[in-house]
Each structure stands twice: as structure tokens, then as C-alpha cells.
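note to self — DONT lose this again. spent like an hour looking for the file last time. sequence + predicted structure for the chain T wanted, 171 res
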Amino acid sequence: MTKLLVCSDIHGRRTVMEAILAAHADADVILFLGDGERDFEALDIPDAGRKKIFNVCGNCDMHSGAAVSRTEKVDGRKLFMTHGHFFHVKSGTEYLAMTARDAGCDMAFFGHTHDPYYEDVLGVHLFNPGAVLEGCYGIVELSEHGISFTHWQIRFDADTPYSERIAPVRW
């Protein structure tokens, strides 16, 4: 099984992102979907040398050299990554789904809306982890039996972080 940690929209909340990384130090792959690229680059990622780390730039990542979208292969599955602003995801996800499908991807990951979201559109699994700014992130597990998508929110109880599963929204 391969575990993907999916995050977006840090917007200065580095301590939240650090707590998420510590809680999921066993992640094999980290996908960062933009808006907080400088925050993300400044993080000390546990065991970073053994992880695959992929990122794209968001609409708030000024002067970024990262791509607006990219495709990657993980465990033989092709995935599409974008922040989402160029795909107008606040107005719907069909354009993103068509673009990912046309690129041969069966999964598309995006941020921008700050809302945890999952839906199968045109045969493409669309997944938005929500915003780290609000403690939200996603875990995707790939195995020979299939794919699982879950949304989580990290909270702090007397400065001790804990995560709880949350339900995604559907538009």
C-alpha cells in the first residue's frame, strides 16, 4: 500500500502543516497543491529523503517557478495536480475532470476553494483536501484492491494536536 498526504492552502499556518507532517510521517508521497509554496519549502519534512514530494503553484504563490499543473505516476496510476484557479474550480469541476481524463489520469487533485471535496466526475476521482489554513488535509491510500480517499482535520487540545475524520462537501 502507498500512502499519499495531500495538502493545500497553507497561507502562513506552518505550525499546522508541521503537525500534519508529524502525524503522517509514514506517508510515502506528499502532494502540495499551492498557496503557501514558501511556507511549504521552509518545512522540515520528516524522512524527506525517502518520500516523493510533488507540488504546484497557487494563485497566491507570486514569482513561483513551479508549474500550474502537472501529471505524475504513482504506483502505476497517473494523477493530475493543480491548485485549481486556472480550471475555474470555484464554478464547477467539469473542466478539471475533462482535462485530467484527456491527460490519461484517473485522479485529479486540487485546492483553491478551501473546501474538502470528493466526487467522481466523468470517471475521474476529484479530490480537494481542504485548506491547511483551517487544519484540513487528505489521505489517499493506493493498493492492489483499489483507492481510498479520506479527509481529515487536525485540531489542538491544550497544544496537543489530534486528527479527526471529516466529511467532504459535494457541490
